[in-house]
Specification:
The protein is mostly helical. It has ten helices and two strands. It has one domain.
Length: 292
Amino acid sequence: MAAFEQWVDFLKMVGISTLYQLIGIFGVFFAAGLVLYFLARFTRNAFAKAGARQLDIFLTGWIGTPVHELGHAFFCLVFLHRIEAIRLFRPNSADGSLGYVHHSYSRSSYYQKIGNLFIGAGPIIFGAVVLYAIMYYLLPNQHIPMTIISSSNLQMSNILTLDDKWEAVYRSGYEMVQAVFTHENLAFLSFWIFLYVSLAVASHMELSPADIKGMWSGLLTLIVILLLVNFFTLLFGLDISKYVFMANRYTGMFFGLFVYAIVISAINFILSYVLLSFYTLLRYRRLFNPIF
């Protein structure tokens, strides 16, 4: 009986270690993708209910959609998926899609199965890289926001500790707004180009339901592999969690970029809703709900 309880405790430890590792590495991406999805959805609802969906596509879609689809395509190449068809920007009024990447892979390849996880998350990862690049090349005082992005306050050793990091996240977001929207920056044309392009990219970084659905097979494959690895390593007294969490030195910078993407997307939603509400109030004598 004691041996059985020891095995149950051991299996619990294997499961908990696997869960911590998955959340520690990928939790930031899922959380940011979900927040960006709702902000993008509310913004598009506002344009649609104001009868201005084509304006939304014209303002941000022609830049943000190609970046979104290139994120999918890039990881298709990394994980050896075959790209059957790709359209970086082709608005479809029937289903509301703006572009697509159709791909296929070998069901017998675990590497390609895991690739589905990264292909689905490609837009938010690739979008963050694009944000970093345009910030570096276009923002006049780029060293200040980049210092905030790489701040140690945003280096999470475990996403499960995020509950005591909200103050740091809020402060970083506030400092980011102050660093970007300075009087000095307003005088540079490159700043306005950066602001527009970053807004367009951030508005399309979200993980859509279709993206999340495509990620499940890759996530399940990765979970099985991690469970097996943790089972055998913990069986011999080795906890690999500390090595897995070493990747956070890289994901921490992504988290900082996600903070900026969320801030700029929130600003975009608020401004869009206010201006569109003013428009519908003047023209139709009514207001609309962008949430539902």
